[in-house]
Amino acid sequence: MAGFSFQLSKNNTNLKTEIIAGITTFISGMYIIIVNPAILVHAGIPYSAGLTSTVILSAFATIGMGLYARNPILVAPGMGINAYITYAIVQGMHVPPEVALGTLFWTGLVFVLLSVFNVRTWIVESIPETIRQAGAIGIGLFIALIGMVNAGFIVPKPPFSGVGPINSLTLTFLLGLLITIILVVKKVRGALIIGIVFTTLLAWPIGRWYGDATAVSGIKELLHWNGIYKAPDFSWFFKLDLMGSLKYAYIPIIFALLFVDMFDSLTTFVGVAEAGNLKDKNGDPRNIKQSLIVDGFATLFAGVLGTTSGTAYIESATGIQQGGRTGLTAVVTGLLFLPFMFFSPLAELVPSIATAPILVIVGVFMAASLGKINWTHLEEAIPAFLTIVLIPLTYSLTQGIVYGLLTYSLIKLVLGKHREISPTLWVIDILSLPLLAIEYGLI
Question: H/E/C letters for each residue in the chain?
């Protein structure tokens, strides 16, 4: 089967190089094994169940990317989307986690259909570039805020919020963040996972001073530790509520997930293709249609498995820099995830505060698009600014994206530049109005 032929010689690589590249990508992205379950706990999904589903989705989606799309790209539950589903949808909107997983299934199903018929790329191209960049930045600010709140560094201070008290928890967070920053700027391989381990070591003594497991979850497990092995936890497999997630009130959620995952995946594929010169004869990302189909199935099966939607990871570029050029790199990366299904007790030792610095750093990564927005061009800067600030302030992707798109279209109309608004964008604008009405409870 052609999809299973890696063609190493044709791609100027060899078996050893591909294996090393796969290991490198895994080390760069393995932090998701710890961070994603730590976030899903706040959505009511047990850590061990979240870890099992995270590992299985990451493994098989990444292997699928290698075998079918033949690209050296890691696919795993997306940072940003996991925080949005947990804190904005489940906690903020009081949506049951089973229903939230159901919305992911329907989102994935739409993704697959759009990808098969190449409609997904067409839709994304109709959205203004400035709104695409602003959406990623807004999500980055959102998850960085979540990390600081989880660490107690930012606390509610009516009418807004402010800096929390300096105590052992916030000092641990700040020191862990400082160490992680140093590792990242020095380009240490596996910097994020090393930062997690270091912050965990710093946090262990706190367990002797505080009994609050919500602040230092993972500390108490150390006192009753029974080894590193535990059978995989499949308790959240097939717990999604398919019919309940189709209620009218949940349409904005599906819309927001569609929007964000489409942009996230495409921009990652483009970025990785640029970094590794993985392009076809037309200059487009190599095997983009097949890659997007795999990405769509990663979102669909995420709901089935009990985790958040899978997406391509920019950390794939680290393996490409090591010489990875074919799908074999992705297969190696995917296989390395599987053993971690059996080590959930070891991962559970990591306190929640140890993942907070990682959320802040990932927020920095997602803010990289700030420089791509022309801030002196107000007809683009204003919609972008509204999108960026409304996402973290309202805990709603829908609010940020919809107001950004509507403002962009209104400005173009006022300036007599209606020809710059594509027919597809007109349709999206029209659909956005009832979405806002649902958000405000008007219909």
Answer: CHHHCCCCCCCCCCHHHHHHHHHHHHHHHCCHHHHHHHHHHHHCCCHHHHHHHHHHHHHHHHHHHHHHHCCCCCEEECCCHHHHHHHHHHHHCCCCHHHHHHHHHHHHHHHHHHHHCCHHHHHHHHCCHHHHHHHHHHHHHHHHHHHHHHCCCEEEECCEEEECCCCHHHHHHHHHHHHHHHHHHCCCCCHHHHHHHHHHHHHHHHHHCCCCCCCCCCHHHHHCCCCCCCCCCCCCCCCCCCCHHHCHHHHHHHHHHHHHHHHHHHHHHHHHHHHHCCECCCCCECCHHHHHHHHHHHHHHHHHHCCCCEEECCCHHHHHHCCCCCHHHHHHHHHHHHHHHHCHHHHHCCCHHHCHHHHHHHHHHHHHHHHHCCCCCHHHHHHHHHHHHHHHHHCCHHHHHHHHHHHHHHHHHHCCCHHHCCHHHHHHHHHHHHHHHHHCCCC
